[in-house]
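thought: fold this chain, then report.
action: predict
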Amino acid sequence: MNIVDLISLERIAVDADLASKKRSLETLSELLTRNADTLSANTVFEKLISRERLGSTGLGRGVALPHARIEGSSEALGAFIKLQSGVDFDAFDKQPVDLMFALVVPEHFTDEHLQILSSLAELFSDQTLCERLRGAETPEQIHQMLLDWQATRNPS
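observation:
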């Protein structure tokens, strides 16, 4: 699955002014459930928080990949936030997080879940891309950067 298939413009927030990990996860939950009639933001938030209790999804270098499997979900969905300033996310490198890509997948997506997380980890290990994302001013710019990155991985 392509990363860009997971995310739409309405699930991208730029320069969000959020002061905490909790508020960031709430906002990601709200974004993830836009136009997703079968999901509630509260359910998604609870699942993301439960996953965080197992260990931080902060990758380091200012990036976090909160994720969860959700019963009743029919498709994998992603949401992206670029924060105005970083928040403490309990990342292993102790650096604040300012780029977050949240992922929810159906409960039965065991292998797919891991494959998507692997692709996201690869994407966010590209420090040049991360710096470009930090400089983006609109959801359209971020979406295009993700499209361009995906195109370099899967040339037609």
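thought: worth noting. Residues 110-124 form the longest helix (15 residues).
final: tokens above.
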